[in-house]
Structure formats: C-alpha cells, structure tokens
Write a structure and sequence with these properties.
This protein is an alpha+beta fold and 152 residues long. The protein is built from five helices and five strands, in the order H-E-E-H-E-E-H-E-H-H. It has a five-stranded antiparallel β-sheet with strand order 2-1-3-4-5. The protein is elongated and about 50 Å long.
Length: 152
C-alpha cells in the first residue's frame, strides 16, 4: 500500500511537471485501508454513508504519500501512516454529521474532516495531524529548507 500511494503521488506530480520544465512539483495522495479493503473518496452521499457505517467502531489506516518531481524525475518522496479508531457513533449522530458537513464529505477519502465536526467521529488517532489532513507538512518543509526554497 505504501508503494502504491507513492506511485499515485508521483503520477500526479509528473503530469504537471511535464508542463513546467525546471519547476519543483508536489504530488500527494491518500489511501484508507480498513482490514485490507482500500477506500477512495466517496462518489456520492450514499457511498459516503456506507463508508462511515463501515468505519464505525473500527480502526483503519490512513496512508499519505508525497512526491516532488522536477523535469519528470522524482527527487523526493515521503510516506506516512496515521492509525485512526472511529467510535461506535449512533445513527442519530451520523445523520447530524452528514447534514452539517454537506458536500465536503465527498472531498475526503474517509468522508470526514478533522477541521470540523468530523473530529467527533473518532475515539483515538495515532499519527501526525497534518498527515490526516492530507499533507505531512513538517517533512515537506524540512525538504524545502534542504533545497533552499524556504529559509533554514
């Protein structure tokens, strides 16, 4: 799974890199793994409901991959995993969550966002906050400092 998420991130960056010679291009992707089943962003509201019901009361892994490409060559990559335990929430809570979250649940691989009401879905989170958000920011900033894009 880790290699797959890195390949997906690199493919995204490479697609853009071809149009911008000499530029550093960042690609990122996430895979959610629940018991060996990989989940993608839900296609619609009904699929989001199905995902959230499947996650209820269970732990899953959220794997994030980053790749920086320059002139179609990967020059840096990072993979990080957050281990997330969803609480056994009620159907009433699920309904309120879906109503309050609106269409934003379709923009996330887990149909949740920690920045809002989605934090209430969880019992425990082991891992970096930025990884859960989809961009492991601290390792990326360290790399950018290393190549002189940001100040040391």
């Amino acid at each position: 799974m880790e290699e797959t998420v890195l390949e997906l991130a690199q493919a995204k960056a490479s697609a853009v890199s071809a149009r911008f010679p000499g530029a550093y291009v960042l690609g990122a992707d996430q895979i959610l793994d629940l018991g060996g089943i990989w989940y993608d962003k839900p296609r619609d509201h009904d699929e989001a409901v199905g995902h959230l019901r499947a996650f209820r009361g269970k732990a899953h892994h959220l794997v994030n991959g980053l790749a920086v490409v320059r002139d179609n060559e990967r020059i840096w990559a990072w993979e990080e995993t957050a281990h997330m335990t969803v609480r056994d929430f009620s159907d009433g809570f699920l309904g309120r969550y879906l109503k309050n979250s609106g269409g934003e649940i379709l923009e996330s691989v887990g149909a949740y966002r920690l920045e809002g009401m989605g934090a209430q879905l969880f019992e425990r989170i082991d891992g970096d906050y930025f990884t859960v958000l989809g961009l492991p920011l601290l390792p990326l900033l360290a790399f950018l400092r290393q190549i002189g894009i940001t100040e040391p």
